[in-house]
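Checked the freezer inventory, then went back to the computational side. Two predictions to log before the end of the day. The first one is the construct we discussed on Monday; recording sequence and tokens without edits.
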Amino acid sequence: MRPDRNSLAQTSERPEALSGAATRAMAKQACAQDGADMIISQVRETRGDGAPTALNGMNRRRVLTAMSSMLALAAASCGPRAADPLSVFDGQVDDWTRALLADSPELASQSGVSPELAGGPFQTRLDDRSPLAVEARRTAAMRRLTELRGLNSSALDPEDSLTYAVLDAQFSAAAAAAQHPFGVFSALGGISPYPLNPLDSAFITLPDFFESRHPIDSFADADAYLARLKAVAAAIDQETAHARLDSEAGVLAPGFIIDATLRQLDASIGQPVTAQTYFTSFARKLDALVARERDPAANSSAKQRAGALLARADAVLRAQVTPAHQRAAGFLRSVRARASDEAGVWRLPNGESYYADALRVATTTDLTPDQIHRIGLDRVRDLTSLMDVALRRIGMIDGPVGARMSAMTADPRYQYPDSDEGRAQLIADVKARVAKVMELAPRWFGTLPKAPLEVRRVPPAIEAVTFGAYYQPPTLDGSQPGIYHQSARHGRDDPHRPADAGLSRSRSRPSFPGRAGARADANPAAAAADELQRLWRRLGALRRGIGRGAGPL
């Protein structure tokens, strides 16, 4: 049974009732006006974060809690006041941000925010991927747009006006996308129609998340890693349940997507536990932690503790995570015979509207699908002309451009050796290209990233479905680097990347200043109020910057 939006008040985005900066700002206004009247007015005009529908949808307990808190703050604000209190707009952005981060422990880790900003400790948890939680996020997205449109935007200063415009574009696109009751929905990451797929399902993305976004600097971090590992099976099962629910409503991935997903699931199931990224990443990080202990007795104790943690991780992977993969594969095999060969989402309920809304989220424009298609055709024509010139320069003059590119892909002269040495040389060459561009960056950009940029090989567990490369922005506080992941698949196995030709200047694009700087690298230490406003403008880029499988960047 599909969850009812009216039953979702307590399932997602659970900040304290009217807490934080919004409450403080309202309390300040209450002191300047008739306190009680103003507070009652604000409560009537503000919804609780768990309210799924109407603007005044808080229950009696939340109203009383909000009023008592605000009255106390209002009384305090009538005495000596701190300088420069947050505005109502600042407070609302604060509350939205905290709600978003509280709902997504993975985004909180990717962002590098504090537990206080994320609503409490999050290092032991993964995102809730259940159908109920996804439906709650849809409800919250529609609620946020109503809250935003209820603010007086005409009184905002230029900085706030910019934030308002960005949020209005984000929130309106998300609210439109939230109208579709199937598939995956994220407030910042957009929508996709099939919970189980070979590109961004949990069984694909989580190994890399554990590898790159769960540092272990203490045994407490190691315990948190293990706790998160225990949640992996639930995440996969939640997506399987979601896919089953959608299939019952007539939403089923086409056959070729099911087949590709099954290949990936079967590869994961067949991989030895001790070779899986979850385990190898844990072992490497624990080894580094143990190595810090210089005292022989402390080092010996740390080794024993690390060994016990690895043994528990091995047991979790065998008893929980692998069976979850098997359950997902079993479901897909059970529905494969019903799958269509049609690739387009037009066959899904309100498919044309779904596609238009997905484009709006992804492109931040109101262009129609036909307009975007024409832009794509024009761009392909321009790039084909440029490629024709480039191919002629290396003596490839006969046949269509596409055929010549395929021939170049297959030519051993443009491939790295299919060996560990060849793959290491590829990564070394990418690092050299990065270093060269960073030398030139000060000539092009006034503000350079403060967070470092690292080049890493795509984790082998997901390399089979990763073409070219992808980029992970750094944490917002700069504590973890931006990571440029380069696939080391051999050229004949990766039709998107003839090996040496893949190191074109365009690969610099997603990782260097101007893109990285405009995302999350540049300012990890801004003042709290300004940072919370900018956080929304940057979290969207952060979330969308973690995509994979899009081909060469």
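The second is the one RB wanted added to the comparison set:
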Amino acid sequence: MEVTQTNQERIDPSNLLDASSRLRQRGEMFWRLVENARDIVYRAELRPRRAFSYVSSACTRVLGYPPEAFYSDPQLLERLVIPDDRMILQQALAIESSNACLLTIPLTIRFCHRDGHTVWVEAIHTGVYDDEGAIVAIEGIARDVTKQRLAERELRESEERYRTLVEAMDDMVNVKDTNGRYVMVNSAFARRLGRPREDFVGKTPVEMEESAVHRQAMEFDRLVISTGQPVDTEYREEVGGQLIIRAGRKTPIRDENGQVVGLVSVSRDVTDRRKMLSALARSEAELRAIFDNATLGIKLTDADGRILKSNRGIQEILGYSEEELIGRSVEDITYPEDVGADLGQFQRLRSGLMDHYQMEKRYLRRDGRPIWGRTTTSVVQRGPDGRPVLVLRLVEEVKAPQSVLVQWEKMASIGQLAAGIAHEINNPIGFVASNLNTLAEYVSDLKQYLTRLEDRCRTKSTSQSEEIVRLRQELDIDYLLDDIDKLVAESIEGAQRVKRIIQDLRSFARADQGEIRPASVNSILDSALNIVWNQLKYTCDVVKEYGDLPEIPCNSSQLVQVFVNMLVNASQAIEEGRRGHIVIRSYVANGSVWVEISDNGQGIAPENLNKIFDPFFTTKPVGKGTGLGLSISYGLVERHGGKIHVKSEVGRGTTFSVEIPVNPPAIGSSTASTTRQG
């Protein structure tokens, strides 16, 4: 029988070519998509043996091995699996025994990357079946989920730390949803309310226990949920007949979109703290009343001596109001001549050499009158660096000690007398010096006249000439003419020396009025020597070893006073009956001008080294010292930003070293310190 093919049954060859071309294009597009995907696409053949027939190039980025490594070594994948996860892979591949396994459940397995780090891979695969329904291959997609898994692990660890922290807290913590129902409570919360933690979950406070406190808590919850703002809370309730106060804070919890999804509450029992604060407030009020009403003057200062707080007692003593005293320094209310002694002691306190000191000094009232006071200064608080943060000064008005008053009056009288004598002598000595200079000129002219007159007589008359020669010899004119020049020269030198001493005395008498200006320390030392030379020249030899010094900004009169005190002390340290030796050295070192005054006197006992700068401390016999010289010197050197160093050995002598910066801070600032070495 002949079969005739109809037009509809004919196949157009061109259509077959187009379909083949489209199929090839789609295949190429699929291959490009697979090769460029970040996930690994693979096919593993199970028959006749296990082997990869395709692995996309993403395996190089994920595992560090190229596709060819898996083609050539079918066991490579299993060797890369972390040992603890190999059982998962083996169970996934053991599919020959069960054709019903679809293998569509994601598997997460850890692999060892080629560089050694661990990679988490999530794979989804399915089976490929033959016509008889037997699995012949596996096709799947594997994705690197390392970052996700690490983030999940970190989140779990963070949540665990949070739970541990919350559980360890003594504060009461609970979390609620937007309906005010408990989601979580910590152990402290459950213990406080005497119920197991599980009883709270899913319930509101009122459902747990009907009470005014729980109704108040729900009001706070609704306020936080509705406004999205934190709320500070306080609950008061009686437990066992005692008032219990709990204070805390409720804070909204927001999701990633900023929506409020719940709230967290933290509260604690503040009953004891409130009682303590109340007791502290009462104690502070009592101390304030004592401070304000004490007849003893009390003031608190900072580390620089500026007043922070004062009581009524010190205000009455000094005549200032509280507002006027705040911010004033110790110098502002201290009699000028006593500032140095107080600053010296205060600097020792600041440097940690002592914790307190007591002294009697004169204060300066608001009306300008001096008033004596006994001051006890002590450190209330020191900072981490050891510097005082708060200093307490107690002031008691006292009468000046009679011996001190007598000595001060003597010193004041001597000072005024010296200044007056210097002023009175200054003009006459000026006349004497001027007249001596004129006399020298006159003598020179007379000598010329006599010489010429003698020459003329020799030429005129022999008898007259012989008479003149005889008279010249008889009166010893040659000796007189020679000696008169020496007498005039010595007189002029003496007058100039007297004038220098007078100038130094006048400068010394105005020690507190000097100006700050550049000066030579060597010249200052010479001025001090001029003043005390009459006392030194009979007891000791003085050796000057001056270095080449730059001029420094200073109050010359104050430094003269310092060196005068030290030179007098050196002279008085030399035993009677033997001639002493004083050496004065000056030099520059480490950015400072140094002056050393050394003597070979009796020396200072070690137990007295830390006291020599104390006001009124002296080891001299009565009438030979007030005990204020070194104390005042200490303060004056400190005003120049300097230091005083002392070395002494009993029986061998003492060396005082004064160190003054070449570029000091503002004169008068309290920045210096003193060191002592025995």
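For RB: Residues 1-8, 669-678 have pLDDT under 50 and may be disordered. The first strand starts at residue 40 and ends at 45. Let me know if you want it refolded.
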